[in-house]
Amino acid sequence: MTIAPTELEVELSADSGPGGPTQPVGPPPAASRPRLLRALSRDVGAVLSATYIGLIVLMAVFAPLIVMVSGWTPYEFDQTAIDPNLGGVPIGPWGGISSTHWFGVEPGSGRDIFARIVYGVRVSMTIALAATALTTALGVTFGLLSGYFSGKVDHAISRVMDFLMAFPALIFMIAVLSALPAGNRGSLLVVVISVFGWPYLARIVRGQTMSLSRREFVEAARASGASGLGLVFREILPNLRSTIIVMVTLAVPGYIGTEAGLSFLGVGVVPPEPSWGQMIASSVSWYSVVPTYFAIPGLFLFLLVLSFTVLGDRLRTVIDSGEAR
Fold it and tell me: pTM of the full predicted structure?
């Protein structure tokens, strides 16, 4: 059994008498998935958010093909697109936007902004999704173990969580990344973000695990001879799917913003590797002259974070309404 019975089902089971059901029965997992998709498909905000996220993911996956169509890689300099007499200001209106450079060019260097946007999302999404996956694995595992076994196990894991959550995470990330070598910065970002991110998910999983471990279906599995780890990963974990999905959806925009913020401060992705946060940082000295250089990566970043946030919020609302019924 993988779906925990609701309290209403337990009460109905107890009061139904000899002719009623003898065990609480939860909704089958397969039945909830189509209902969830139907509910989200009727929500305009969720559809728009999912569409934008899908386009961004496709952009990241097919980045090499996309820049082949545009004609410029993110590392090429087009000196003919900037005016050296004006300090490298792009030639033409709106930051040099033209049929040659769809989003214009970087002031001073002449690199194609469209190509750097496309490759920048590849970097941001890769780091954010990898950090989310590692954070989820650590948070769910330690949260389950802490909530189910309690005692010394719970005490040890909880103290580690308290220790990590006591740090001002952003300041410590800056300090750690500043002291580490610049090579393989993407992997370092994933590790550092995950180290400080997993306790927040683990706290939530721990609390729900403690509640579920006292439910009837867990007691029944324990009475049938199931081992502790078997109960944790075969009985309790499947009933946390909704919580984990919502938390993951809401964690991704946070990690995208974290990567952009660290790159903006100069301790994240290092040049010439493109990053949206890095592009926004380099546009600060140009925004009054070439506002599009600041606006374009800022708009892409804003819409991506907003889309994940809206989708996660709508997903949580649908799941909560389904559980209430």
Answer: 0.79
